[in-house]
Amino acid sequence: MKIQTIEAILVSLPYTTGGSEDAEAWGGKAWRTADTLLVKITTDEGLIGWGEAFGYNAIPATRAAIDHMVAPLCIGRDPLQIEPLLLELQQKLHIFGRGGPVTYALSGIDIALWDIAGKAAGKPVHHLLGGCRAAALPCYASLIRYTEPKVVAANTERALRQGFRNVKLHEIEVAPVRAAREAAGDDVEIMLDVNCPWSLREALDMAQRLEPYRLRWLEEPVWPPENYAGLAHVRAMGGIAIAAGENAATLLHYQQMFEAQAVDFAQPSPTKMGGISELRKVFTLAATHNVTVMPHSFYDGPGLLAAVHVNAAFGQGSLVEWRYFDLQARLYGSAGVPQDGFIAVPTGPGLGLEPDPDVIARYRVG
C-alpha cells in the first residue's frame, strides 16, 4: 500500500459563543468562524485517512507547508510506516523550524496516517496504542474570553446545565473569575488559561489575588511560554497548580519543562507538536515525572479525536478539553459531542468517525 494523494482542505464553520460576539480573540484577528485545516490522505488501495493541522490565523502558512514541502516527500511511501516516515520528514525539514507551520503540517499528516493504520487493521486507534481505559472520558468546557463578568457567569451556568462539572476560563482579570466561581458554587472545578500575559512578578501578584477562588490550575501565566524557570517559581510560590505545554513543540521541550519542575499538568497539542506519535510519548515521559497530561484539544475535528484516543489509552486522571462553541454545523454531526460532561471514545476503525462530506462541501473554502 502506498500514499497516493494528500489534500489540505480548509473548512470554515460559523459559530456563536453564548455572549458578546466581539469578545477578544487571539493572533490579532477577531474570529467569526471556526476554521479547521483538514488533511486528507488517500492510498492506492482506496483507504482514506483524516488528520488536522493547526490552525487559525496560521492556516495559509500551514497549508503551504503541506502542499509544497511535506506532501511531495510522502507520495509513494508506505502509510503504515508512520514513525520511520515522520522521523525522516522531521530530519529533512528541521532547518525550516522545529515548531510552527512545518510542525503543524507534520502533525496533520501523522494523525491521518494513524487513521489509515487503524482502518487497515480494522481497529480503533486506541487499540493500536494498547487499549482503552474507559468507554467515555470526562470533559471540561473550554470557554472563550468574555471579559464581562455577567457574561462569564451566564456561560458558566449554561455549561453546568449541560452536564459539565469542569469549566475553563480564558480571562485575565479577577472579576470574571470571581463571577464564575459564584455562579458555579464550591463543587465545580474551575481552571484559568491566561495565555502568557505576565512577567514573573505580575504572575505571582495575580496568583495571590486569584487564590481565594480555588482554581484547579493556572495556565501559562508567564511570558514567554518557554520560561520554564519562571513557571517553576510561580508553581513553588503562587499557591496554585500550574499547567502549560500548548506552545511546546517537541518532546525535548517537555523534558526540559518536567526537569524544571515547572508544571503540575502538561498540555501537549496533537495538531501542533507532532500528532499521535509524539503525543503518546509525552504521556509516557510525564508519568516518569508524576505530571498529569491534559491534552490541548481546542478543536472539533480529527485533532480532538486524536487527543481522545491517546487519552483513552494512556491517561490517568486526564480530562478532555471541549471547545465550548455553538457551531452552525459539525464535522461529525451529533457524534463526538459530550453528553453530561463525558465524551464517548469512538470504537470504529481508525479515529472512529468520518467527516460529513456534505458539511465539508458546504463550508469548504478555496
What's the short story on this structure?
It is built from 12 helices and 14 strands. Helices cover about 40% and strands about 20% of the residues.
Counted beta strands: 14
The end-to-end span amounts to 30 Å
* Low-pLDDT regions: none
Question: Fraction of residues in helices?
Answer: 25-40%
Number of helices: 12
Radius of gyration: 20 Å
Share of β-strand residues: 15-25%
Mean pLDDT: 96
Task: Explain what the structure shows.
By secondary structure, the protein is an alpha/beta fold. The chain is built from 12 helices and 14 strands. The strands form 2 sheets. Strands 4, 5, 6, 7, 8, 9, 10, 11 and 13 form a 9-stranded mixed sheet that branches. Strands 1, 2, 3, 12 and 14 form a 5-stranded antiparallel sheet that branches. α7 links the parallel β6 and β7 (218-219). The radius of gyration is 20 Å and the shape is globular. It starts with a strand and ends with a strand. The mean pLDDT is 96.
Question: Which short descriptors sum up this protein?
Answer:
single chain; alpha/beta; five-stranded antiparallel beta sheet
List the helices and strands and how they pair.
Layout: E1 3-16, E2 33-43, E3 48-53, H1 59-74, H2 82-93, H3 101-121, H4 125-128, E4 136-142, H5 149-161, E5 166-169, H6 174-184, E6 189-193, H7 200-210, E7 218-219, H8 228-237, E8 242-244, H9 251-259, E9 265-266, H10 275-287, E10 292-293, H11 302-314, E11 320-323, E12 326-327, E13 342-344, H12 357-363, E14 364-365
Parallel strand pairs: 4-5, 4-11, 5-6, 6-7, 7-8, 8-9, 9-10
Antiparallel strand pairs: 1-2, 1-12, 1-14, 2-3, 4-13
Helix pairs in contact: 1-3, 2-3, 5-6, 7-8, 9-10, 10-11
